[in-house]
Amino acid sequence: MRRPLHLIAVALLTASCAVVTACGSDSSSSSSSTPSGGSTAATSTPAAKKIKVGLVTDIGGLNDRSFNQLANQGLEQSEKELGVTGRVLPSKSNSDYIPNLSTLAQQKYDLVIGVGFLMADAIDTVATKFPDTKFAIIDVDATTLKHKPTNVMGLLFSEQEAGYLAGYMAGLYAKDNNITMISSVGGQKIPPVDHYIAGYQAGAKAADPSIKTVNAYSQDFVDQAKCKELALNQIQQGSKVVFQVAGQCGLGAIDAAKEKSVQAIGVDADQAYLGDQILTSAEKHVDVAVETAIKSVQGDTFKGGVDTTFNVKNNGVGIGKTNANGAKYADQVAAVQAKIASGELSDIPDTVK
Length: 353
What we know:
By secondary structure, the protein is α/β, with parallel strands linked by helices.
């Protein structure tokens, strides 16, 4: 279903150069492990230009097994393949964002990358203070930043497309097994989370119009107990598929699914390695987005004040491996994916009602 990842990297680099405009403790970047099944950027000839790249995680940290870890994976790949010097500053609270970003800017890093929507205001503040430093931010539309800094590249994803594919598989599974309810557990009600959930609900109802969808927010991206409790409540109500959209907290929802022998859907990274209960995962290739931003700085094609969007068409989002229950629907989901890529299927909702 998924194209070879060396083609993904080439496609996304092309997209970056065209600039598709869309709608503190210190840690070495090699310190975290790579989850099995995660997307890996392609080998390329190291660029002659040596640059320093800093990465600031959100509070989920490097071990969220989700998008922070994927961002770090993209930096690690760039160190190996592009010859960049990387540094990661983890954030343990929101108050770490501005100091961490400022530290990297003060140390003359060529590119400073912020991971996540919650860092938007901090990026705006620091980028405005350091106009000669290049910044990129994942999950934030650069054009919406308060001070409109022209040195920030937005790295956006059409999460609703990945959510739709995962939801479509969940709907097919539910229909075949006389299941009447599926559910989702979000971290906070922010755009990247709601995009996934809205697409998931729409995809499920496209596959099974009678399916009931329920949703809850933990208001947390770290505490696994909170997400596990919400998932257990949903399972008690009758949910047989739980989609986690809550980073490290969401691992608790996956654990609840395992405990109650129901299906789970992972998020951001391919989380199939977490157990046989993973029906599939709704992916966004944050690692490739990080490499794309780095390559734009190395190649002097970086453009701030605008966004690059990653979607099904350019292989920036999709779904991961499937378990035995999901494998039987692979061809049907692939057909839907092709319709999204071609534009035949569009207007997938990105707002949770």
